[in-house]
Every structure is written in C-alpha cells, then in structure tokens.
Amino acid sequence: MNFRERLRHFTWSFFTMTMATGGIANVIYTVPFRFRGLDTIGTIFFLFNVVLFLLNISIISWRFYTFPETFSASYMHPTERLFIPASVVSFGTLLINISQYGLPHAGPWLSRAVVILFWTDAVLAILSSSGIYLLM
C-alpha cells in the first residue's frame, strides 16, 4: 500500500493516542512519590503529546484536503464517527497538561488563555458528542 492510500485510511481514532500520551503526562505529574527528574520526564511526555496532536491534526487535515469526499464519509461511517469526539477530548488532555506543566513557568496570560480554551473545548465536546449520536 503506498503512502497516498495509507493517508486515505488515517482516521479519527488516532487521536486516542494523544489522549493516552497526555494521560501518562498527567499521571506522572500526580505521582506522590517524587524524585529529581520526574518533572522532566513528565515535561517530555507533555511535549511529545503536543507534537503528536499537531501531527494528527496535520495528517487528518491533509487527508480531507487530498480526499474531500472522506470528510463527510467519516461522519457517516458507523464506527469512524464514534472517534470524532476523541479529537476534542485529546485537546482537553492537552489543556490539562498545559495547566500542569506550563502555568508554573508562564505568566498570568496563560491561565486566562487556558480558561478560554477550556470553555471552548467544553462546548465543542458537548456538541461533537451529542451531534454524533444524533447522526446515528
């Protein structure tokens, strides 16, 4: 299978990968038994999660640009559409990690930005989750 065909089969389910990676960073942040270097390991997982999220967004956008018919087809596919909200939830995982690893190192502007992005993510999560089940 060539790269173009692989691109055609890149689905929303790949966003569960960023949910899991962000979850690992979250768990590392909340581990009660601390040691020197644990924050560095968590930060590495957080930054890796950001890279994976941006890669997923880029590839799925490239898929929809290259094969425009797959956009509506992904909403009508019986199993692929169930993973559409995973993209929104994985963004929420990024927001959790930003509040854990980014806020201590940034100014008050990041706190306000995270609050705005949180409410945007909450609305998108409700709309995408309920919208998918209304399409079913």
How would you briefly describe this protein structure?
It contains 6 helices and no strands. With 136 residues, the chain is mainly alpha-helical.
| Helical amount | over 70%
- Give the distance, in angstroms, between the N- and C-terminal Cα atoms: 31 Å
Low-confidence stretches: none
Rg from alpha-carbon coordinates: 17 Å
The residue-averaged pLDDT reads: 91
- Beta content comes to under 5%
Structural class: mainly alpha
Number of helices: 6
Count the E strands. 0
What's the topology here?
Blueprint: H1 3-8, H2 15-30, H3 38-66, H4 69-76, H5 84-102, H6 108-135
Q: How would you characterize this protein structure?
A:
This protein is 78% helix and 0% strand. It has 136 residues and is mostly helical. Helix 2 packs parallel to helix 5 (84-102) and helix 3 packs antiparallel against helix 5 (84-102). The radius of gyration is 17 Å and the shape is globular. It starts with a helix and ends with a helix.
Task: Describe this protein with a few key phrases.
single chain; globular; mainly alpha; 136 residues; 0% strand
